[in-house]
Design brief:
By secondary structure, this protein is of the alpha/beta class. Helix content is 30%, strand content 18%. The chain contains eight helices and 16 strands. The chain has helices spanning 79-92, 106-117, 145-158, 176-185, 224-237, 252-261, 278-292, 312-317; strands spanning 7-9, 12-14, 18-20, 43-44, 61-64, 67-70, 97-101, 122-128, 165-168, 190-193, 197-200, 202-203, 208-209, 215-219, 243-245, 265-268. The chain has an eight-stranded parallel sheet with strand order 3-16-15-10-9-8-7-4. The protein has a four-stranded antiparallel sheet with strand order 5-6-14-11, with no helix packed on it. Bound molecules: 3,4-dihydroxybenzoic acid. 3,4-dihydroxybenzoic acid (DHB) is lined by residues 23, 70-74, 131-133, 195-196, 217.
Length: 321
């Protein structure tokens, strides 16, 4: 029997739980050379801002052990070009579009939400309140529950009621559950976890920081246990809130780990840079991982690791526990 991979993004149903991670696939166009973008759960776009933006000076990317450090500085075309060019392209391909937005002020987020409310074909909005590459940490809304709530409330208030709002959280906080709760109370329909961790790498030959922006966001396999921990903690506190889990997923088994921790969806990011068709491969692998455990429906295993009994597949296959 075919595995039922359907999942829910608030009240919106997706055919499967594998999404791109914001910032790792532009607006999806580059990926279309490698696979049919309509086949994955959704394309999550690079965070779009109100105005076009050139981003930070180069170098913007650096390799680290098991991870990547980046400081792009929210380079992008701005909302007008996005709505004229990028969103229609995604829709013409039959892809579901989750639009990531970023602003410098609450007013900018509200304006972006208003612009998206007038557009048709937006599956959901992911509110990037956790970009690490800003001038000072005081500007990272997701580091403060009240600032996070203000942004989410402004977005929710401006967006059409039928478009789910997901808040993207930072792991660089003392208690992520406090931030998650503030976002949900302010009207978030779901949570995306995690954004990159703030990092720094120094070239020991030049004796200077490698990145022109000095600090950058760390992603890749190095951050996976941190991400799984965040998903777990929030699922434990807010079991009914849908979560998009992300951070260093490279295989279907990695995706399964996030789902067991409580993610209803997963986003694939850094691994796309060396394997552009990773999303469809991971989707296939996830289906195989489920089938080999006798799991027929994705919905049956979301958050299963929180329940103190053996996984159904283990019982079904009769293997010893
Ligand atoms: C940017 C970089 C990130 O690592 C991130 O998580 C969000 C935004 C950027 O610089 O554009």
């Amino acid at each position: 029997m075919a595995t039922d991979l359907r999942t829910r993004m608030g009240h919106v149903e997706l055919p499967n739980p594998v999404l791109t991670a914001s910032g790792c696939a532009g607006s999806g166009r580059e990926l279309a050379h490698y696979f049919d973008v309509a086949k994955i759960g959704a394309v999550v776009t690079k965070s779009v801002m109100l105005a076009p933006r050139a981003g930070r000076p180069t170098p913007r990317m650096a390799e680290t052990p098991s991870g990547m450090l980046n400081s792009i500085g929210l380079q992008g075309p701005g909302i007008d070009a996005f709505l004229q060019r990028d969103l229609p392209w995604l829709l013409s391909r039959g892809a579901r579009a989750v639009v990531s937005i970023a602003g410098g002020t609450v007013g900018e987020y509200a304006e972006l939400a208003a612009r998206l409310s007038d557009a048709s074909g937006v599956t959901a909005v992911e509110v990037n309140i956790s970009c690490p590459n800003v001038e000072d940490r005081g500007q990272v809304f997701a580091c403060d529950p009240d600032a996070s709530a203000e942004v989410i409330e402004a977005v929710r208030g401006r967006l059409r009621y039928d478009v789910p709002v997901f808040a993207k959280l930072s792991p660089d906080v003392t208690d992520i559950v406090t931030i998650a709760r503030a976002c949900v109370t302010a009207g978030a329909d779901g949570l995306s976890m995690i954004n990159t961790l703030l990092g720094l790498t120094i070239d020991t030959i030049t004796m200077q920081p490698v990145l022109a922006g000095v600090t950058g966001g760390l992603s890749g396999p190095a951050i996976r246990p941190v991400a799984v921990r965040c998903v777990w903690q929030v699922r434990e506190a807010l079991p009914d809130v849908p979560i998009i889990g992300m951070g260093g997923i490279r295989s279907g088994r990695d995706a399964l780990e996030f789902i067991l921790a409580g993610a209803a969806m997963v986003s694939i990011g850094t691994t796309i840079f060396h394997d552009p068709s990773a999303c469809v491969r991971i989707l296939r692998e996830l289906e195989e991982e489920m089938a080999s455990r006798g799991v027929e429906r994705l919905a049956d295993i979301i958050g299963l690791a929180h329940e103190p009994h053996p996984a159904p597949g283990r019982r079904l296959s009769g293997s010893s526990l």
